[in-house]
Amino acid sequence: MLKKVASSRLRVGMFIHDLDCGWMEHPFLRNRFSITTEDEIRKIMASGIRSVTIDCTRGLDVADAPTVAEAEAATEAEVAAIAAKPVAPLRTTLAEEFDRALAIRRQAAGLVKTVMQDARLGKAVEMDKVSPVVENITASILRNSSALLGLSAIKTKDDYTFLHSVSVCTLLVAFCRSRKLDAATTYQAGIGGLLHDTGKALVPDAILNKPGRLTDEEFEIVRRHPRDGYDILRRSSEIGPIPLDITLHHHERRDGTGYPDRQGEQEISELAQMAAIVDVYDAITADRCYHKGIPAAEALRKMYEWSKFHFNPALTQEFMRCVGIYPIGTLVLLESGRLAVVVEPHETSLLTPKVNVFYSTKSQTYIKPETVDLARGMGFGGADKIVRHESPDKWQVDPLRFLQVA
């Protein structure tokens, strides 16, 4: 039996089934192992891991700990309550914005690549090239955030570093907009999001793309990238304090376990806290050479659990409302037995988005794609509801192919 246990209750003789954290966030070679020493428990606590999953059939039990199913049910109930708040209305349809968003994303990824190359050569960032890209991303988000947010889920392993920066910029701009921050602040946050990983230009590709566990020395090199990026951006007199702060502090955590300055909750600026949420969300949903990305809906539930210690809980909940309980591009199973991809949030209920259905799990065949508005009733294009989010790997389908219905 699998149970969720607070790290403070770990004892020698327990079997860790899942450390419940990002692959890069702990010092162990694997996620599953028997605890044999007190030192291993201290390492888990020092890494900022606040809860783990134990396998009671392979080690000691904790009698009053909830099972994984019970813990997930409790989280799901809390997430449903978060979904009740309305979201910002869209100005254009996904079809109208999609091609434009595709071109903007391509342009932005090319710019980040150039910035990284220039940084390796010791050149300052050219803000006259950065500004129009951030303005284009912001304009696209204002017209229809679904297009760029949906594209954020599509990344290739070779271009991950560049596309991750574009996604963080996109998500951070959308987050600022959903929180009704002013245009100037949103623009500066967008610059910070696009350039937040500039310091990775100084990390050798062999370390960035290493498929196995990093050594302690390699991990220390990676942990230097916020400070390196900050130093690189300071060479440009046009870079403001917000992008510098986001670049330097997007890996800080409210419990003081982050880096480079181990800032606590009261020290981390609000925009840096927002950037931290966005950065982790995009990272854990992406396929990397060293880990398989998790579905966006599952990632949000993980973020919600982690927010009790690592992130600002109120901001995490606002981010969940921003991207939707079932984010754009999420594969969902409907009550009718059809699979669908989420394409647009509903303005008042995040549990009833618009989806494109494309597959029947009953006949295990593709069906003619069509858009279904789950907020509508029978005879009005609706009369179906989401049962749960699904893993594309389970069904061997690519839901992102059906973001648009021809």
What layout of secondary structure does this protein have?
Layout: E1 2-6, E2 15-18, E3 33-34, H1 38-46, E4 51-55, H2 68-82, H3 94-120, H4 127-151, H5 160-178, H6 183-195, H7 205-208, H8 216-222, H9 225-233, H10 241-249, H11 270-284, H12 296-306, H13 313-323, E5 331-334, E6 338-344, E7 354-360, E8 365-373, E9 386-389, H14 392-395
Antiparallel strand pairs: 1-4, 2-3, 2-4, 5-6, 5-9, 6-7, 7-8
Question: Would you summarize the structure shown here?
Answer:
Helix content is 44%, strand content 12%.
Give structural attributes.
single chain, 406 residues, alpha+beta, Hypothetical protein af1432, 3 domains, 5-stranded antiparallel beta sheet, 4-stranded antiparallel beta sheet, 14 helices
Q: What does this molecule look like?
A:
By secondary structure, the chain is an alpha+beta fold. The chain has three domains: 2-65, no CATH class; 94-323, Hypothetical protein af1432, CATH 1.10.3210.10; 330-402, no CATH class. The chain has helices spanning 38-46, 68-82, 94-120, 127-151, 160-178, 183-195, 205-208, 216-222, 225-233, 241-249, 270-284, 296-306, 313-323, 392-395; strands spanning 2-6, 15-18, 33-34, 51-55, 331-334, 338-344, 354-360, 365-373, 386-389. It has a five-stranded antiparallel beta sheet. A hairpin with a 3-residue loop joins strand 5 and strand 6 (338-344). Helix 4 crosses helix 5 (160-178) and helix 9 runs antiparallel to helix 10.
